[in-house]
Automatic annotation (TrEMBL):
Its EC number is 1.1.1.22. It catalyses: UDP-alpha-D-glucose + 2 NAD(+) + H2O = UDP-alpha-D-glucuronate + 2 NADH + 3 H(+). Substrate binds at residues 155-158, 210, 255-259, 263, 327. GO terms for molecular function: NAD binding; UDP-glucose 6-dehydrogenase activity. This is UDP-glucose 6-dehydrogenase. SUPFAM superfamilies: 6-phosphogluconate dehydrogenase C-terminal domain-like, NAD(P)-binding Rossmann-fold domains, UDP-glucose/GDP-mannose dehydrogenase C-terminal domain. The active site is at 266 (nucleophile). Pathway: Nucleotide-sugar biosynthesis; UDP-alpha-D-glucuronate biosynthesis; UDP-alpha-D-glucuronate from UDP-alpha-D-glucose: step 1/1. It comes from Iodobacter fluviatilis.
Length: 444
């Protein structure tokens, strides 16, 4: 099938590449000329495991190409995916200007029947706005072409995006157009062994499903974070509690890990956008309001422990920090909890030496010229002279360090662990002061 993907970011690039992998003829468009230049020269503008090889393979096979030429790309695909960003507006609602601009581009250049598939995360009712924008452009040209609107929200996780896209739990397709339904069914057939995994519904329900999923997952995480904070005070161990409740199939093991609060480009903005949608309709989502509040507080959980240990004046203190990206296996720094933690430490007089396996360049971009913040390209290189090590992201490379070496390098054998990477008992035996989340604190 001939496919166009508008927006070549995390979602667009993964979508286009995975569709090419199963033999489709894909053109990925972006307005960011620099991004397209990198892709045309064989590079990949983001870090996502497995993506680079898959892009190379499909480009060589002639099934995948990249362009900034809107007219050419709109003319190419029978199916036009919109995968542009939907960042938060000042009031937290989803800003649809990129989605509407993409829809207008399609309307401006399309000839003949097209299926317009919205893959961006958009509020309920956006399908109607996309339809109106395209119809308006067609009317201006006096063109009478029929088209279908489909909502096909994306559920991939960064860091596991290829795996998630190639082996989805489910594919949600919202449309009222039978031809579009058949085309989408054939397009996704290779991705699902069991066709029950393709869920057809109306556009509005599909749009709502995406927000419902992210809000539900964010709720689980915030609730676990609150249970962790309580466990810690009560002398219970949240890691044991997590296993104890996860073994109930009604609860399940996934997304029960306490930490430094959820971040990234999706949960924070999608929770807010859903709250805004509800408010606009006179409804208050009380549970979600609490989820967001709890998450804001959780981003300070490590800082609170640091202040408790060192006092509020951190002048002259130096911290080593492991993990900048909002989660492992990505270089994405959008809403990363590390930013809040670093900002606090620096603004209270401390200095920070940070390491992340892949996100340093992105950190430098989003935190330019932050006085007192330095980087090193290995975990051990940030340790010398540090008063403590602060762990923010659970990269595999941080899971089993040489603790004797860590102890020698640090000024104090002291670790604040926002991801519960180590066993408190073993840390005590190894001679560390150790402050995990929701577990036994090994104090002085
Ligand atoms: P992104 O910022 O990485 O990429 C968006 C791209 O769209 C950018 O490269 C931008 O230049 C391009 N763009 C903007 N306007 C354009 C236009 N008119 N024509 C062509 N290109 C245009 O964003 P992302 O992380 O890929 O997210 C895209 C959407 O998918 C968002 O709605 C997001 O909420 C949703 N989503 C993201 C994830 C994720 O893990 N990142 C997962 C599921 C859903
Ligand atoms: C999320 C959704 O999982 C995905 O389905 C959707 O398409 C996009 O948004 P992503 O943001 O890439 O994916 O990462 P995810 O693995 O969900 O993690 C989001 C945040 O929650 C991270 O900051 C992570 O550290 C945190 N998290 C996740 C926890 O704190 N505990 C957990 O148990 C899981």
């Amino acid at each position: 099938m001939k496919i166009t993907v508008i927006g070549s970011g995390y979602v667009g690039l993964v979508t286009g590449t995975c569709l090419a992998e199963y033999g489709n003829d894909v053109v990925c468009l972006d307005v960011d000329a620099n991004k397209i230049r990198i892709l045309q020269e064989g590079g990949v503008p983001i870090f996502e495991p497995g993506l680079e090889e898959m892009i190379k393979r499909n480009v060589s096979a002639g099934r995948l190409r990249f362009t900034t030429d809107i007219k050419e790309s709109v003319e190419h695909g029978t199916i036009q995916f919109i995968a542009v960003g939907t960042p938060p507006d000042e009031d937290g609602s989803a800003d649809l200007k990129y989605v509407v601009a993409a829809a207008r581009s399609i309307g401006r250049y399309m000839h003949g029947y097209k299926v317009i598939v919205d893959k961006s995360t958009v509020p309920v009712g956006t399908g109607d706005k996309v339809r109106a924008a395209i119809s308006d452009e067609l009317a201006q040209r006096g063109e009478q072409t029929s088209f279908a609107i489909v909502s096909n929200p994306e559920f991939l996780k960064e860091g596991a995006a290829i795996e998630d896209f190639m082996r989805p739990d489910r594919i949600v397709i919202g449309t009222d157009d039978d031809t579009a339904k058949d085309l989408m069914n054939s397009l996704y057939a290779p991705f699902v062994r069991n066709h029950d995994r393709i869920l057809f519904m109306d556009v509005r329900s599909a749009e709502m499903t995406k927000y419902a999923a992210n809000a539900m997952l964010a709720t689980r995480i915030s609730f676990m974070n609150e249970l962790a904070n309580l466990s810690e005070v009560m002398g219970a161990d949240i890691e044991l509690v997590r296993k104890g409740i996860g073994s109930d199939p009604r609860i399940g093991y996934h997304f029960l890990y306490p930490g430094v609060g959820y971040g990234g480009s999706c949960f924070p903005k999608d929770v807010q956008a859903l709250q805004r949608t509800a408010n606009e309709h006179g409804i208050s989502l009380k549970v979600l309001d609490a989820v967001e509040k709890a998450n804001q507080a959780q981003k300070s959980v490590l800082v609170d422990k640091i202040v408790k240990r060192f006092g509020n004046d951190l002048k002259g203190k130096h911290f080593a920090l492991w993990g900048l990206a909002f989660k492992p296996n990505t270089d994405d720094m959008r809403d990363a909890p590390s930013r809040v933690i670093i900002e606090y430490l620096l603004s209270h007089g401390a200095t920070v030496a940070a390491h992340d396996p892949v996100a340093i360049h992105e950190a430098q971009r989003v935190m330019p010229d932050w006085q007192g913040l330095s980087y090193a390209d290995s975990p051990m290189a940030v340790l010398p002279d540090a008063d403590a090590l602060v762990i923010v992201t659970e990269w595999k490379a941080f899971r089993s360090p040489d603790f004797a070496d860590v102890k020698t390098q640090l000024k104090n054998p002291l670790i604040f662990d926002g991801r519960n990477l180590y066993d408190p008992k073993k840390m005590e035996i190894a001679g560390f002061e150790y402050y995990p989340i929701g577990r036994q604190q090994v104090t002085r």
